[in-house]
Amino acid sequence: MRRGVTGFAVLAVVVIAVAAAAGYWAGRRSTPQAPAAAESAARGAQLVELGGCDNCHTPKLPDGSLDMSRRLSGYQEGVSPLPPAVAPGQVSANPDFTSFRGDWGVSKARNLTPDATGIGGWSETQFIQTLKTGVDPSGMKLMPPMPIMELENAPEADLAAIYNYLRTLKPVANKITGM
Ligand code: HEC
Predict the structure, then answer these.
(1) How many domains are contained in the chain?
(2) Which of 7, 54, 60, 61 is the 20 to 30 A CA-CA neighbour of 34?
(3) pLDDT under 50: residue ranges of the chain
């Protein structure tokens, strides 16, 4: 009788262990990718806040607040004025802080939304490479005041997170020309 109970207990332990292992593997196999991407995008949202990307890449309303209906769509081509002329060695900005003039010429904050006129056609790898090298997929070297030196040493997972977040933005059509 004693033996029977022990045998049953051992069998029960084995059954539980097998069931747990099966559950574990089934869980691993069926884990969807979605939560990881959503987590990455949530981190990206924080990094975009901390990185102050809106300061330059989001147009401003007349009262100076961010125009969230066109969030991160950059200098508004044909709408935003250009920055005033400056003496050598000096820098100027336009009123909505999306375009800048200095010894490098005139730079315009770019459209970061997932529209075809923005970075809609960029892969994650192209986005990471752009921020790591300061040269975009079209070969354009990123001029000031884009804070490339702050971003080039960021962990790739963080740059991927920013990319994942930017993919969730409303696409805004705004083709930016020049440089
Ligand atoms: C101080 C202003 C400023 C801030 C802050 C800023 N940017 Fe920029 N960014 C620019 C300007 C200006 C350009 C265009 C540079 C040029 O024309 O050479 C640019 C270009 C870019 C480009 C290249 C796009 C293209 O089409 O080539 C990317 C990507 C980018 N910024 C991402 C970001 C991200 C992400 C953040 C926040 C972490 C950020 N920027 C913060 C000013 C800024």
Answers:
(1) 1
(2) 54
(3) 1
